[in-house]
């Protein structure tokens, strides 16, 4: 069945971003529930529309368990509606729930997230020839079944109008050094996404984004390009493998930074692949359902188990 905007009924809001809103909607003809992202788009130019249609077909054609299922995009009243699978939460909201309980996010969780994101990005590159360009906690979604999936691949960048783009060009806290100051040909390699993954992992492990708020692009340039890369505090109790994984992802010189082939062979990732004890779906459900007090106890329990 071809989904049309007129057949969709709004259920509730799932979240809001810089460019629009994401809502849960029911397809009236089939009863299927979608997450619909509505972006105000001033894209009228034919060639950009064509690129978009091609991209749409490309992403619809292939998917993997680490990518949020994409059902297609449509135009309505000058907006673009992007239809995708509904997930239970996003990593930004989820890690903040842990921080609010004064607990660190357990390492087996972080390891599984790193594994899935690396697998998803690798699949995108190998099978769809796509580079994500916007890897960050809010674009990593989780569900109670234990799936970790990336979303917002490629599409948004093609749609948002150029004014919005230039306004937001700098000051993106997940941008690698080569995109802030470097050769344009390096700026969009696969390694850019590897850097953003590294920043994402530091953020969820440390409980806060490693860089402060920049007031000007110059401050960003100074910090990201000139200072040593961020790392996770050794006192938080994470493994040496994790610290090394982050260090590899955050190699400032993009030519030295590993690509997915190497990333997927790192001991931190291999261990995550061999770890079958940790029940990520159960953990996500428990945290989402728990009251604040209960959540405290669950998280403390997990970190004690890890120490044992
Ligand atoms: P951003 O990613 O910049 O925060 P978005 O507009 O892409 O902005 O998404 C806004 C929020 O909507 C996200 O932070 C996430 O929590 C939620 N969201 C996005 N897509 C989905 C989805 N498929 N299922 C459930 N929640 C989603
Ligand atoms: Mg997003």
TrEMBL record:
Annotated organism of origin: Panagrolaimus superbus
One family name in Pfam for this protein: Pkinase
Keyword Aminoacyl-tRNA synthetase in record: no
Family designation: Belongs to the protein kinase superfamily. STE Ser/Thr protein kinase family. MAP kinase kinase subfamily.
GO molecular function: ATP binding; MAP kinase kinase activity; protein serine/threonine kinase activity
Transmembrane segments annotated in the record for this chain: none
Entry's Gene Ontology BP terms: stress-activated MAPK cascade
Chain positions recorded as ATP binding sites: 37
Catalytic activity: L-seryl-[protein] + ATP = O-phospho-L-seryl-[protein] + ADP + H(+); L-tyrosyl-[protein] + ATP = O-phospho-L-tyrosyl-[protein] + ADP + H(+); L-threonyl-[protein] + ATP = O-phospho-L-threonyl-[protein] + ADP + H(+)
Key words, A-Z: ATP-binding, Kinase, Nucleotide-binding, Serine/threonine-protein kinase, Transferase
Protein origin, superkingdom: Eukaryota
Its EC number(s): 2.7.12.2
InterPro entries recorded: Kinase-like_dom_sf, Prot_kinase_dom, Protein_kinase_ATP_BS, Ser/Thr_kinase_AS
Lineage of origin: Eukaryota, Metazoa, Ecdysozoa, Nematoda, Chromadorea
Name under which the protein is recorded: mitogen-activated protein kinase kinase
Domain Protein kinase: 8-269
């Amino acid at each position: 069945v071809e989904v049309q905007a007129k057949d969709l009924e709004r259920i509730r809001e799932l979240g809001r971003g810089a460019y629009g809103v994401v809502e849960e909607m029911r397809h009236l003809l089939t009863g299927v529930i979608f997450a619909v992202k509505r972006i105000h788009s001033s894209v009228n130019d034919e060639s950009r529309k064509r690129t978009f249609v091609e991209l749409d077909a490309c992403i619809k054609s292939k998917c993997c368990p680490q990518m949020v299922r994409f059902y297609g995009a449509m135009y309505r009243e000058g907006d673009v509606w992007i239809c995708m699978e509904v997930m239970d939460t996003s990593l930004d909201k989820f890690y903040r729930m842990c921080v609010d309980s004064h607990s660190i996010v357990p390492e087996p969780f972080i390891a599984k997230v790193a594994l899935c994101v690396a697998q998803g990005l690798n699949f995108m590159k190998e099978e769809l020839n796509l580079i994500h360009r916007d890897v960050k906690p809010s674009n990593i979604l989780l569900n109670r079944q234990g799936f970790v999936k990336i979303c917002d691949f490629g599409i948004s960048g093609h749609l948002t109008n150029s004014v919005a783009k230039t306004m937001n060009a700098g000051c993106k806290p997940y941008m690698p050094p080569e995109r802030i100051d470097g050769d344009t040909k390096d700026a969009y390699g696969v390694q850019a996404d590897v850097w953003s993954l590294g920043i994402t992992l530091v953020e969820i492990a440390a409980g806060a984004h490693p860089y402060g708020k920049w007031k000007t692009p110059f401050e960003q340039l100074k910090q990201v390009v000139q200072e040593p890369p961020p790392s996770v505090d050794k006192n938080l109790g994470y493994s040496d493998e994790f610290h090394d994984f982050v260090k590899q992802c955050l190699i400032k010189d993009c030519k030295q930074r590993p690509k997915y082939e190497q990333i997927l062979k790192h001991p931190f990732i291999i261990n995550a692949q061999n770890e079958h004890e940790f029940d990520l779906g159960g953990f996500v459900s428990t945290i989402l359902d728990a009251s604040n007090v209960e959540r405290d106890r669950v998280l403390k329990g997990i970190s004690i188990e890890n120490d044992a």
